[in-house]
Every structure is written in C-alpha cells, then in structure tokens.
UniProtKB/TrEMBL annotation:
PANTHER family: SURFEIT LOCUS PROTEIN, SURFEIT LOCUS PROTEIN 1
Natural source organism: Cereibacter changlensis JA139
Keyword Nucleotide-binding part of the UniProt annotation: no
Subcellular location, record wording: Cell membrane; Membrane
Assigned GO CC terms: plasma membrane
Domain of life according to the entry: Bacteria
InterPro entries for the chain: Surf1/Shy1, Surf1/Surf4
Stated name of the protein: SURF1-like protein
UniProt topology in membrane: Multi-pass membrane protein
Entry similarity comment: Belongs to the SURF1 family.
Length: 222
C-alpha cells in the first residue's frame, strides 16, 4: 500500500516545491524592480543641473536639467493619445540655448484640434529631464512627409530633421501655446512580477490539491 502512495506523493512534493520556488523568485524580482523604480524616481525628481557637454544616453538618462533660451520655428508632431482626451500630438521643438547650443525640447501634449493654431512661445526657461526614449521598432512607420506626422520619438532622426544635437529635454512644466507637459516618470516601466508570482503560487496550490485528490482516490481504491 505504501508503494502506491510513494510516487504520487514524491512527484506532488517535487512539483509543489518547484512552483513555490518560482513564485518566490518572482517576489524577489519584484522587490529588485521596485528598488530600481525608486532609484529612477529619485533621479527624476532631483535638483536640475546644466546639460552636460556630451550627454550619455545611459549615464544621463532621466538627468534633471535646466536651460534658458528660445524656441526655434522647426518642430515635429509625434502622434500619441491620452486617456479621457483622445488623439493628439507630442510637440518636439528645436531650442537654442543662451550659450548657442541647439537641442530639442519635448513640450508635451497638444490636442488634435489645436495643431493648426499659431505657436507664439519664444524665450523660455525649461526645467525637465534628459531622455532617449526607446519607441522605435521594426513596425514603426516612417514619418509622413505630407502631414509632417511622426509615429514615435526617435532622438537621432528628430535631431537630423530639426538640425540640432541629439539631445532631448522633456519639459516638466508648461511652456505655453496650450501644450500640456508630459513629464518623464517611471509609470511606463513595467513591473509585472507580482502577477507572475501569484500565477506560480496559484499553480502550486492547484498542484497540491490535485496531488491530495489523487492520493485520496488511491486510498479509496485500496
């Protein structure tokens, strides 16, 4: 009789242990990711500094900066949308600093119906964060030359189109012309490990339940 119980119990315990270990690993991954997100949030909210002479996309990602100068006429409108508002555009505009550097400023969200209105903002003091968003993949359409629409922020390509350095500052506060700032934050960085952990723990619970049911049926037959 003991032999009949041994193999089901053995595989039941082994399977449950593996599933529980996977769930525990996901919990540790969740804690690791939360620490990374907390570090990113603290970097984003730090006191602004001057733009480095040669910003590095890895070292200076999310670096808070402050810059004074004037907007240039050239800009690109990147198609996007916002909850409860709908379709609109991210306005990325050329900007010349008081020291003569030509950079780009992501001014934020402009509703679709306001795209054709004149933009009067010139001199500005910009506080924001350096960013090199990874939004382009093999499925991203090329910019539409007829409408002037872009479908993702591509820092090198936008810099070439606007004749600036490949430096993008995402504004934290309004820059005028009815454009709503869309500051950098960590909300878009996924942290799905809690869901994965719940899935593994649920599978472990189901595995134990099925093992107990199987053992009960063996006992009844015996």
């Amino acid at each position: 009789m003991a032999r009949r119980f041994f193999l089901p119990l053995f595989f039941g315990l082994i399977g449950a242990a593996i599933l529980l270990s996977l769930g525990t690993w996901q919990v540790r991954r969740m804690q690791w990711k939360e620490a990374i997100l907390a570090d990113i949030d603290s970097r984003i909210a730090a006191a602004p500094v001057a733009i480095p002479d040669a910003p590095d996309p890895e070292r200076d990602r999310f670096l808070p900066v402050e810059v004074t100068g004037e907007f240039l006429p050239a800009h690109v409108d990147v198609l996007t949308s916002r909850k409860e508002i709908g379709a609109g555009y991210r306005v990325v505009q050329g900007f010349v600093t008081e020291t003569g550097r030509r950079i780009m400023v992501d001014r934020g969200f402009l509703p679709q119906e306001m795209r054709g209105l004149p933009r009067e903002a010139l001199a500005a003091e910009i506080t924001g964060n350096l960013h090199w968003p990874a939004e382009v993949d093999s499925f991203t359409p090329a910019p539409d030359p007829k409408s002037g629409l872009w479908f993702a922020r591509d820092v090198p390509a936008m810099a070439k189109a606007l004749e600036t350095e490949p430096v993008l500052v995402v504004a934290r506060s309004p820059t005028g012309d009815g454009i709503d700032p869309l500051p950098v934050d960590s909300a878009g960085i996924p942290n799905d490990h809690l869901g994965y952990a719940i899935t593994w723990f649920s599978l472990a619970f189901g595995w134990v339940g099925m093992t107990l049911l199987f053992l009960w049926r063996i006992r009844r037959r015996t």
